[in-house]
């Protein structure tokens, strides 16, 4: 009954809130706060006893939901984040009422779908709510309705559809091989007999399907595009919760059908390490506040995936205690990252509310004076995500690091590879510290080059109200509380169901050493690269931000010198040194060519567009020849006017071709054919 209420209330109240906002959009926002508050109260009762819901007649395999430690905690975290972002929205949207009731409608629908995923106990329920969530959260990205927002929204939707199709193919393979989609039954069946090639193929498809939502490489391309254009409350949910929906599916696959499968663990490890390192590098090169935080989310997802993979590798060698300790670390890092990104993205919302800017040059020195709560909350979250001892990120990252060390010891033949992954782990953690230090010093320590702008920053009478301050300060306090060993051990053991974490001693020298190495690397990266090159001759010099590396465009190859001349003298170069900016752009473009297969996608896109245009072109040809429309008798039209009208008709006929329903239907049919072709080969 309780689970049914948790699911029904958001879905049922969404249209009511939408209707309330037809005349006064803020009414829908206030109603949304009441709904999320009720949802939060209901999820608190999930910790009292066992709750389950089963609807076997709705779908093949049934629709099953239940609670355990991990599910109950994340249902509560989801409702808490929705409540905080809804309260923050009262001030964030106070001057922006366009489309607000639509935004609240889909926020509540997504809340119900997220709770459905987090409480699901079989793949059918997970898949159903996962797809609802993908389509309802699409409207968050396009809320501003700018060209950039629409482009990012369609990228998000495209990745979501492709991910859903691949996930569906994986589920078909899995049910054809095992006869069930229930997590518990799958675990029993595949423990009795090791998984075969078809089951492993299903697991890879499921990994890619859920990885698309998690922001895993190479399906991460939506994440850096969507966050900068989405409203800040939506960005907090996209980063803090919706990426964890993808992680949830991957985690359930690692825990149940493919537990102790070394091949599956190795695949997750490779993708996790790449995601971790690439996200950190992209964040380091970013000059946009929300884009930096988005790329940071991608990197932290890589940390979590690495922990899940180490759980698989350790469990396959019989190291159950070390495996479950690493699993506790992965679950704790999920929780920590959700709370930290809630603070950081709401803090970026404070900047957007007051300055309507996100470029670091434009917000330089904004929080230097008169904003103590804003500064303290941002600092705590930055220290937490950087893994500084005494904060929550240190404990979870240390558990993940210990899992890497243990895996390198028990997998002797692959110890060199795993030791390399360990160093990538430490360096990525150092880069995290470097870019968070960059953000904090830029916003809260140094003065803006413009004295007038800095004076306006310092003399701003009010930057957020008490409600907004509370929903930023309270999660920041949780970041600090979760950094205590007692809280971390208690919650970690409750989520993983294993008491192994109770023996973990976070502040021994061996554990502190890994964190200190990572922080030292981050400090050196900040001093030598960020400070030495990114900020060379910039705002901190007091020279108006006009000093930058000169003469570089003449020394570069023609393909890069044009890019250098294009950006010479612009504000962007007052923050990023010209050299590293060009190298960063070149590297990003090179990685884009490799990871996103731009050339092949261009060919595929041109082919599908041709297929879509062909029937429309035939219709236009027939309209202008055999079945052409003749002028009405007596109408005076000369040849020139007739040709103009004809060309106009043809243009109007072709206008919807590239973005019409037939094109979307064609892409869906291509996806279904790919699924059927794979089934014919594998079955």
SSE diagram, text form:
Layout: H1 2-20, H2 25-44, E1 52-55, E2 63-66, H3 69-92, H4 100-119, H5 123-141, H6 147-178, H7 183-192, H8 197-214, H9 222-229, H10 232-255, H11 262-285, H12 289-316, H13 320-355, H14 372-386, H15 392-410, H16 415-445, H17 451-458, H18 466-481, H19 485-496, H20 509-534, H21 552-555, H22 558-567, H23 571-575, H24 578-595, H25 598-624, H26 639-654, H27 661-682
Antiparallel strand pairs: 1-2
Care to describe what's here?
The protein is mainly alpha-helical and 683 residues long. It has helices at residues 2-20, 25-44, 69-92, 100-119, 123-141, 147-178, 183-192, 197-214, 222-229, 232-255, 262-285, 289-316, 320-355, 372-386, 392-410, 415-445, 451-458, 466-481, 485-496, 509-534, 552-555, 558-567, 571-575, 578-595, 598-624, 639-654, 661-682, and strands at 52-55, 63-66. Among the domains are: 530-595, no CATH class; 604-629 and 641-682, no CATH class. The chain is built from 27 helices and two strands. Helix 3 (69-92) runs antiparallel to helix 10, helix 10 packs antiparallel against helix 13 and helix 13 packs antiparallel against helix 18 (466-481). It is globular and about 70 Å long. The chain starts with a helix and ends with a helix. The model is unreliable at 536-583, 593-597, 631-640 and 642-663 (pLDDT under 50).
